[in-house]
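Annex B. Sample input.
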Amino acid sequence: MTDLELNKAALLYVKAQLSAKALAARFGVSANTVVRRLRARGIPIRDKVAQRYSDKALGRYDHGEAVRAAFAAGRYDTDAYRNRKGGFAPGVDRRGEKNPFFGQTHSPVTRERLSRAARTRVIAGQGDYGPEWTEELRQTVLRRDGYRCRRCGSGEGMLQVHHVDTDRTHNDLMNLLTLCAACHLAFHGRREGVEEVLAAAAALAQRDGSAPDAAHAEGGDSPSGP
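Annex B, continued. Sample output.
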């Protein structure tokens, strides 16, 4: 960056509150270069959280777009999340008091906003578990599937039984599929792996000569169900 470009960048950073990333794109340098040069001028550097608040206040931040970009980059991938220590960045343990959010709570407005957003992603269950749903039936499904998740193949952790057509009252064996807790939660909570689950059910139906009723394939039973 030339001195003139640096002067412009400093004004935009302080007055317009543009991010280092935005300035880097404008002047054709890296964000680290912008930060380093601004810091050398004695300009306090905003952290990512402060920059996001600033962008929100100025109408430059689209949370929905940010989430979609994160999904596209694989940051919310279930398998990747499962393999991380503590569920965060590799090698970082942020459980309990080590979590920066420990002891804090969202405001009622934020909780309601997050709840509304979550409800748009959730695949909700249909109907109630009837008398046909028994532990014996559950064990029959698990045994038939070799005590392994039909989506990812995992045989570790909690195994649950998923209703393929998402109707809890439909307990035909061909409508029941073994999923691990992580895949079950991903399906119902984030709509992940829907096509894979249906493909697994179709393969099972082809093997056993029957077909599940997928009329409500994107409904869903409770992720914390059996």
